[in-house]
Amino acid sequence: MGESVVSRVVRIVETFGSDTPALRVSDVARRAGLHVATASRLIEELCRHGWLERDDDRHVRIGVRLWELASRASPTLGLREAAMPFMEDLHAVVGHHTQLGVRQGHEVLFVERLSAPNAVLNITRVAGRLPLHVSSSGLVLLAHAPAEVQEEVLAGPLPPRTPNTPAAVTEPAGLRRLLAGIRRDGYVVCPGFIDRETAGVAVPLRGPGEQVVAALSVIVPNDRHARAQVPALRAAAHGVSRVMSSR
Amino acid sequence: MGESVVSRVVRIVETFGSDTPALRVSDVARRAGLHVATASRLIEELCRHGWLERDDDRHVRIGVRLWELASRASPTLGLREAAMPFMEDLHAVVGHHTQLGVRQGHEVLFVERLSAPNAVLNITRVAGRLPLHVSSSGLVLLAHAPAEVQEEVLAGPLPPRTPNTPAAVTEPAGLRRLLAGIRRDGYVVCPGFIDRETAGVAVPLRGPGEQVVAALSVIVPNDRHARAQVPALRAAAHGVSRVMSSR
User: Fold this and answer.
1) Domain tally for chain B?
2) In this protein, which residues make up the domain named HTH iclR-type (chains A, B) (predicted)?
3) In this structure, are B57 and B139 located in the same domain?
């Protein structure tokens, strides 16, 4: 019985997302595939522990307490704290979205982002995900992922994200060449892969022991200046690695 | 039975903290007050869902997946995203720790922090807490908390945080006067309340409907310039409120 309660709790918490931060109990039940009575009882108990919270208008949300528990011992907290001062400097110089991503399976999860109000369009958000093969951060992480992960991605479907996504990342042979180029050059520039107006530029971020633990990237206007961000990105990535290694 | 499984899961996740990010299964069991077999079984299932993760050396940690779930629908995400550009500007100007805190019961929970490597000492951290009555952020939040929360805090013990904590916040009459002053002036300066070398300066941050939803603060050297940070803090707080109200 214990196992199934844990699964139900996980299904309930997973119904909340950036597009659905607040839901009625009946919506949670439907999305989680649970009887309303069961969902209601578990939501009640999760609210008592502060993991969920009730709005004034009978909606349920993720509780601040769950964020606190997950954040204070987060495995990415050390990385984020080391990266943030360098990301700030980078953001001040580049003036556009600056973000930090880690690999989770076949996707990149963005764990930190700095944005200026007047920056170019950017579809990512904190705690948002993108497939590895269509984003600059994801390509850097894939290039340095274990061989079996690379083979899984290369063997699977490689759908374009938008009509602008080039064949170089949707065909295994092209993607394999691109990944080799990233390992050789130490960066990637993705002009218009996701949006015609923007370019993603990413570099690997190495942890203690030189393994790649994250990707540092900027989203800039898609023009001939995009590649000029590489030296600043590399310098910032070196700084973060130095701080992490000295701890 | 469902209730007790949820409680056990909560107790297991709560054993992890900033000082104990990685624990052995036997340590988790002891801290959570569970039999090792029970804890082991629940940890196993939480790992399967990615809510916990296993290290190479048989330690268990909070999983990136739990952080992602809690973050992507976090009730403070909108606040943090609105505040971050202004916090960056403030941090660039002030050059010291800049932080954003929300009230959780009788404590302030820090949800965002920007720090320069060479900044003054600061005991707070992201997802860290401090009692309301000893920190500049906490005092601002207490001054604008519902009357019953203020009375609870004023009626309870008001322990000093350090030998430097002044009597003005450890005696009900003094604290009541200080809170009235904060409501009148719109800011608080706490010179040496927590550390003799530093001063906390905080202002309220208002959400839609003018209610105070957070405190914006800086931790600066404890000298006669501390109060000079108030105008920059106020301007930043106004900017955040404007962005939140326009959404």
Assistant:
1) 2
2) 3-64
3) no
